[in-house]
Design goal:
leucine-rich repeat; mainly beta; elongated; 19-stranded parallel sheet; 8 helices; 1108 residues
């Protein structure tokens, strides 16, 4: 009975407590019209997950159900007394759609707080009806895709405490904008405003001084990236309640940040990328003790004492990036133990990283990239266990990566790009299981990739390019199933591609180029269905292209160039409908170009050069209407150039040279060409006039077709962007357009050689032109060499040989300081070749100097030989001469070792001096022995006298020496035995005597190379030397004194001695001559004189015949 009474009392008390609690906790029901407005609001937008990309969102309106109390709906706040909606928080609610002015939102008149941030109200303007919320204290419309003008009605919100319109800009949308009048109303009327955020709002029309009227109670002002220009009002810096000031990314904003009287509660200062000046010294820093964030990247710091920053112990964020600091990092920064973000990138900091930074154990973000730091990574950085971003790229760090970095297990990004790190990658990096980005490229790492990297299963990007890694790719990389980008290019990897890479099904970019990989492409790569870039160029891959590559239907770039692939090009490549760039050049592909390539309608670049392709260019390529660059050079393609190639409107680069194409060149149906090379084919006919309408053309090369005929139209001078013009080795006739010398300052190559051009060469070359190569040789040009050619100050090659030019030696060419090759051979040039004193350094860079087969006379170049500096020193860097920016390689036609050859490429090491077939007299200058780099010296068919200089023995690089058909006397110098590279020697038809030197090279020469020298004896001539002749007296060594050879005579002969000698010699000579020619005795002397006379007569007849 007692228990029953007690139980009954307990339940009564419990019921009373529950009733009381329920009645006090339950608010009145939401007003019906408010609920209806909210439901209409819900219906006006759709839910899309992508509409809230910046924060974790949830569809709050899904909890809004008809028949339930709206005051309990997600994001809704009601007044407990009236049931009216006073707060609406729809931030990150995935809302998508347009917010119209008639939306039911604007019927919620009692709203005090409204947050629509992080949604997607695309194309919506900020409605003027927002100004009707007269009770509103907080309005947040940020990150929601609004656009257009901010309505002036916002100024009616007189109770507003917080306004955030920031970050509505979008690349596809217009920014939110402020007109000056609207903004002025807002800052004047919103007197209670404490927080104002307008980041990325277009305020370029707003004068910064209008900010002066902001409320004195302002605590937060954020105007990042607003386009503000002009002086920022100084009173804002001094507002007493200011806690946050962010003005970054207003490049035109000026002013001066004060060092005193600042708010003592300022905790965040952002002046990055502005021109607001400040002194980062003791006065300012002592007033910034409460500061938690300092953003001064790319700012106007006038003076600084960075060591004092160690006193700002409350700092959590410090950004000093992109300034001009050039000191070491002060160790006092190690005092900032609250720091989470430290950015010192893009400066000139040097020295080592101080170990004290290991104290910053709260650090999550560390960026020291783009500086000049050196030394090793301090092991103390391994203390930073909270670190998830470590950027040390583009410095001078060296040594190995400390294995202790493997302790930073929170790390997501590690970037050590472009340093001097060496050694192997520590296997401990395999502990960084949260790593998503790893970039070790552009260093000196070596060894193999540790298999432990296969543990990094969150890895999204792996860049190891431009190092010295070797060995094979570990199969464990096939575990990185999240990997999107893999770049191992430019290393020494070898072996085959592991088939496990076919597991990386998220891979979008794979670059294995410039290595030593071999074998075939594994068919498993066909599993990489997300791949859009595949680069395997510059390896040793062989075999055929696997047909499975045709499965990579997302592929946009495929580069297999410079390998050993063979067989036919797989027709499965025609499945790659998204392909924009296809490069299969420099392989051994054979067969025809597959017609399936015509399916690649997005193709922008098609390069199949340097293979063994045959047949016609397929007509299916007509479908490639997006094609910009077509390169089919160095194949065996035949047939005519299909007419559709001349009609592809997007085509800018067309290179078909070195094939077997025939027929005429059709007229182009467009004017988009910038590069055209049809050289080395079998084309004929005239040059189509449409070529001269390609106003953007920079390269025109139609050389070596032999059958191109007709005249060169003067319309060619309309191509003012032309850089290379090569029409050589054809049958073009008529006169050379005189405008070619001055129509384009961009022209660097003009090659019209080996044609049938007549008339005079262009007479006017404009100043400041860019000509580097000028070749008009092998034509029938007449007249003079124009002096204006000295305006071609960049000229490296000048070939005017094999023409009919009548002139004296062009001394003015000595002013061309860059000239390396000068060919004037086989013309009608005459006179002496002695340069005036004005050009002391004339021709100092000449490597090839050929003025043979002219009528030059006098002594041998005595005014120039001392200045031929390039012929005195060998060039050990064997490259081919040409223009660096365009890839055009110089060519030249000349006599090499007695044979007329066209050099399609000219080695930079070649040195030639050819003065043959002229009428030079006197002795061979001893100074010629200075030209130690000479490989070919030809002085033949002149009237040179005296001895062969022993100084020629110093020309140790000489391969060919021709002194034949002169009047040289004396013995062959024994010093010539030392010319180990001498392959060609011709001393025939002189008056040499004595023993022929012996030695390795001389034993290879035939007797015909010494004939016409009756006094020579020994091998290989049949005449034996007498016993006396065995004792050859060596000639005196050559002198290298500067000056004319006349100095060899010293001062021992005066005019009297010379007169006496001349008189006696004349009398004796006349008497002896009479006796000899009357009696013909001695016979040997008579025969020598007669042979010399006949030789000179034969030379004269030969020259006369050639000029006719």
């Amino acid at each position: 009975m007692g228990f029953s009474l007690l139980s009954r009392s307990f339940f009564l008390i419990l019921f009373y407590f529950h009733s009381t609690l329920s009645s006090s906790a339950s608010p009145p029901l939401c007003a019906h019209h408010q609920s209806l407005s909210l439901l209409q609001l819900k219906q006006s937008f759709s839910i899309q997950m992508s509409s809230s990309p910046y924060l974790y969102g949830r569809p709050k309106t899904e909890s809004w159900k008809e028949g339930t109390d709206c005051c309990f709906w997600d994001g809704v706040t009601c007044d407990l007394q009236t049931g009216l909606v006073t707060g609406l928080d729809l931030s990150s609610s995935m809302l998508h759609g347009t917010l119209h002015s008639n939306n039911s939102l604007f019927s919620l008149h009692h709203l005090r707080k409204l947050d629509l941030s992080f949604n997607n109200f695309t194309t919506s303007h900020i409605s003027s009806r927002f100004g009707h919320f007269s009770n509103l204290t907080h309005l947040n419309l940020s990150w929601s895709g609004f656009e257009g003008q901010v309505p002036s009605e916002i100024s009616h919100l007189s109770k507003l405490v917080s306004l955030d319109l920031s970050r509505n800009s979008n690349s596809s949308l217009k920014n939110v904008q402020f007109e000056p009048l609207s903004f002025d109303k807002i800052v004047r009327n919103l007197t209670k405003l404490r927080d104002l955020a307008l980041d990325s709002v277009d305020m370029s029309l707003v004068a910064p001084n209008s900010l002066t009227n902001l409320s004195s109670s302002l605590s937060s002002l954020s105007l990042v990236n607003c386009g503000l220009q002009g002086k920022f009002p100084g009173n804002i810096f001094l507002l007493p309640n200011l806690e946050t000031l962010s003005l970054s990314d207003n490049e035109g904003l000026t002013g001066s940040f004060p060092s005193s009287n600042l708010s003592n509660v300022l905790s965040w200062l952002g002046l990055s990328n502005t021109r607001i000046s400040l002194y980062l010294e003791n006065d300012l820093i002592s007033n910034l003790k409460p500061l938690r964030g300092m953003l001064l990247g790319k700012s106007s710091i006038i003076r600084s004492d960075l060591a004092l920053l160690g006193n700002l112990i409350n700092l959590t964020v410090l950004d000093l990036s992109d300034n001009n600091f050039n000191s070491q990092i002060p160790s006092s920064l190690g005092n900032l133990i609250q720091l989470t973000h430290l950015d010192l990138s893009d400066n000139n900091f040097s020295g080592q990283i101080p170990s004290s930074l290991g104290n910053l154990i709260q650090l999550t973000h560390l960026d020291f990239s783009y500086n000049s730091f050196s030394g090793q990574i301090p092991s103390s950085l391994s203390n930073l266990k909270q670190l998830y971003l470590l950027y040390l790229s583009n410095n001078n760090f060296n040594g190995q990566i400390p294995s202790s970095l493997g302790n930073l297990i929170q790390l997501t990004n590690l970037d050590l790009l472009n340093n001097n790190f060496s050694g192997q990658i520590p296997s401990s990096l395999g502990n960084l299981i949260h790593l998503t980005h790893l970039d070790l490229s552009d260093n000196n790492f070596s060894g193999q990739i540790p298999s432990s990297l296969g543990n990094l299963k969150q890895l999204y990007v792996l860049y190891l390019s431009n190092n010295n890694f070797n060995g094979q790719i570990p199969s464990s990389l096939g575990n990185l199933i999240q990997l999107s980008d893999l770049d191992l290019s430019n290393n020494n990897f070898s072996g085959q591609i592991p088939s496990s890479l076919g597991n990386l099904k998220q891979l979008t970019s794979l670059d294995l180029s410039i290595n030593n990989f071999s074998g075939q492409i594994p068919s498993s790569l066909g599993n990489l269905k997300q791949l859009y870039m595949l680069y395997l160029s510059n390896n040793n891959f062989n075999g055929q292209i696997p047909s499975s590559l045709g499965n990579l239907i997302q592929l946009s770039d495929l580069d297999l160039s410079n390998n050993n692939f063979s067989g036919q090009i797989s027709s499965s490549l025609g499945n790659l409908k998204q392909l924009t760039n296809l490069d299969l050049s420099k392989n051994n592909f054979s067969g025809q170009i597959p017609s399936s390539l015509g399916n690649l309608k997005q193709l922008y670049l098609l390069h199949l050069s340097n293979n063994n392709l045959i047949g016609h260019i397929p007509s299916s390529l007509e479908n490639l209407i997006q094609l910009n660059s077509l390169d089919l050079i160095n194949n065996n393609l035949s047939g005519q150039i299909p007419s559709f190639l001349f009609a592809l409107h997007s085509l800018e680069h067309l290179d078909l040279h070195s094939n077997n194409l025939r027929g005429n060149i059709s007229e182009f149906q467009h004017d988009s060409l910038t590069y055209l090379d049809l050289s080395n084919n079998n084309l004929h006919g005239t040059i189509p006039s449409s070529i001269f309408k390609q106003e953007h053309l920079k390269f025109l090369i139609l050389a070596s077709n032999n059958k191109l005929r007709g005249e060169i139209s003067s319309s060619i001078c309309k191509l003012t962007f032309l850089r290379v013009l090569d029409l050589s080795n054809n049958s073009l006739s008529g006169s050379t357009p005189l405008c070619l010398g001055n129509f384009s300052n961009s022209l660097s190559v003009l090659h019209l050689g080996m044609n049938n051009l007549q008339g005079i060469m262009p007479s006017t070359f404009s100043r400041d032109n860019s000509l580097q190569y000028l070749n008009l040789g092998g034509n029938e040009l007449e007249g003079n060499i124009p002096p204006s050619i000295i305006n071609c100050t960049m000229l490296e090659v000048l070939d005017l040989g094999n023409n009919k030019i009548e002139d004296t030696f062009p001394y003015f060419l000595g002013a061309l300081s860059k000239l390396q090759i000068l060919v004037l051979k086989s013309n009608k040039l005459q006179g002496f070749v002695n340069g005036p004193a004005a050009y002391d350094s004339a021709f100092s860079k000449l490597r090839i100097f050929d003025i043979s087969d002219n009528n030059f006379s006098g002594a041998l170049l005595t005014g120039y030989l001392n200045g031929l500096e390039a012929m005195m020193a060998s060039d050990h860097n064997m490259i081919y001469m040409g223009t660096t920016y365009s890839g055009y390689v110089y060519s030249i036609q000349m006599t090499w070792k007695g044979v007329e050859i066209e050099f399609e490429k000219i080695r930079s090491t070649i040195r030639v001096l050819d003065l043959s077939d002229n009428s030079f007299t006197g002795e061979i200058p001893k100074v010629i022995g200075k030209l130690k780099a000479l490989q070919q010296l030809n002085l033949s068919h002149n009237s040179l006298t005296g001895h062969i200089q022993s100084s020629l023995g110093n020309l140790t690089n000489l391969e060919s020496l021709d002194l034949s058909s002169n009047l040289l006397t004396g013995r062959i110098p024994k010093q010539l035995e030392g010319l180990k590279f001498l392959a060609i020697l011709n001393l025939s038809y002189n008056q040499l005597e004595g023993p022929i030197p012996t030695g390795e090279q001389f034993s290879t020469f035939k007797a015909s190379l010494f004939e016409g020298n009756l006094g020579l004896c020994g091998f290989p001539v049949l005449k034996n030397c007498s016993r006396d002749g065995d004792q050859e007296q060596s000639l005196p060594p050559s002198s290298y004194n500067e000056g004319h050879d006349s100095t060899l005579f010293g001062d021992g002969f005066g005019w009297k001695a010379v007169a006496m000698g001349y008189g006696c010699g004349f009398v004796v000579g006349v008497a002896m001559g009479y006796i000899v020619f009357r009696t013909k005795k001695p016979v040997w002397f008579h025969r020598m004189i007669e042979d010399t006379w006949k030789l000179n007569r034969r030379k004269t007849r030969k020259k006369v015949g050639r000029r006719n």
